[in-house]
Write a structure and sequence with these properties.
By secondary structure, the chain is mainly alpha-helical. It has four helices and no strands. Helix 2 packs across helix 4 (75-108). The termini are far apart. The chain crosses the membrane at residues 6-28, 40-58, 78-101.
């Protein structure tokens, strides 16, 4: 095993630890104020609804070259990927509109 392999596995572990800690610590902190959990729950439900809408409008077409090895893409997987892409696009647009609105609001005040 090379040094590069070891460092790659260490970086994977650190990313995993960082992801777990970034999710768990705010949840532990929010136990002091249960009303904040309602906001988090509402945000998760809103994103789930947005994904369901985007999943519903995405297509499930698969090109023949992606049906075989090494991809083995099915129509269901294609529709999930399309739903994720559409959800990402909508969230990027919402973020950009929010940034522009905030800047205009600060400029007016």
């Amino acid at each position: 095993m090379d040094t590069y392999d070891i460092m790659l596995y260490v970086s994977y572990a650190l990313v995993g630890v960082g992801a777990v800690v970034s999710i768990l610590l705010p949840l532990i902190k929010s136990l002091d104020d249960p009303k904040s959990l309602v906001k988090v729950g509402a945000a998760i439900v809103a994103i789930a609804v947005l994904f369901f809408i985007c999943y519903s409008i995405s297509g499930n077409e698969v090109l023949p070259k992606f049906e075989g090895e090494p991809f083995n893409l099915t129509p269901q997987m294609s529709q999930i990927v399309g739903g994720c892409l559409y959800t990402t696009y909508v969230l990027i647009i919402v973020a950009l509109v929010g940034i522009v609105f905030t800047e205009f609001n600060k400029a007016i005040k």
